[in-house]
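Internal tracking record. Fields below are filled automatically when a chain is submitted to the structure queue. Please do not edit lines marked as system-generated. If the sequence contains nonstandard residues, flag them in the REMARKS field before resubmitting.
Queue: standard
Priority: normal
Entity type: single polypeptide chain
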Amino acid sequence: MIRVCLADNYPVVHFGVKSYFKDHIDISIVANVGNFSMVKDVLYTKEIDVLVLDLDLDGLSSIYELKAIIKNYTKTKIIVFSSFSEQIYAPNAIKAGVAGYVHKTSKLESLGIAIMKVHQGNVILNETIKKNLALIAKQNKSERLYRKLSNREIEVLRYLSNGKKNNEISAILGLNEKTISTYKLRLLTKLNVTNLVDLVNKAKTLEIV
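SYSTEM-GENERATED OUTPUT FOLLOWS
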C-alpha cells in the first residue's frame, strides 16, 4: 500500500479524499493534518510515501519551505493539491522538488493516478508546465520574481504600495484581515525582503507595481 498524508486546511477536503480512497487497493490515507507545523511531526513518527499538500495550508508561507521537507525526507514524494493557479505555481513547485501538481478542480481519480505515478519515481509534467519551465529558464531576474506571485498577491501588493493598511485592503477585497496578513507574509518571503518599506521599493524596482 502507498501510505499517504493529506495536509489541507478544510475538513471537507479531508473527508472527501479519505472517503474516496477508503477501499482503494493501492492507496491508504494514513494521516491527516490541518497545518504545516504538523507535517514534520507526522513525517518523523510515520512512514509516509506521498505527502499531498495544499499551498494554502496554514503555516506554509512559501513553496520553498517544502525544500527542507524534500531534503530531510528523501523517501517521501510531494504532490501539491491546490486551487492556486497551475500556470503560476506548478513550474516553481516542480523546480523546488515537488513531484507533481494536481489542481483541485481535477477529479479525485486524477489525484489517485498522480499518487501512484510519483510513488513509482515519476515527476508529473503536463505540457503546460513543461512550456512554463522553458519560459522561466529564458526570463530575466525581474520576470522570474514576477512569476512567483499570484494575481491576488499582485493585487495586495499594489494596494500596499498605495499606502493602504491591511484592514482597508481586506474591506476592498472582501477578505478577512488575517488572509491579507498571510498574503503580505508571502510577498515578503517571495521578494526576499523583511519589511513593508523594502517590499514596496523592491516591487517598484522590478516594475511589479
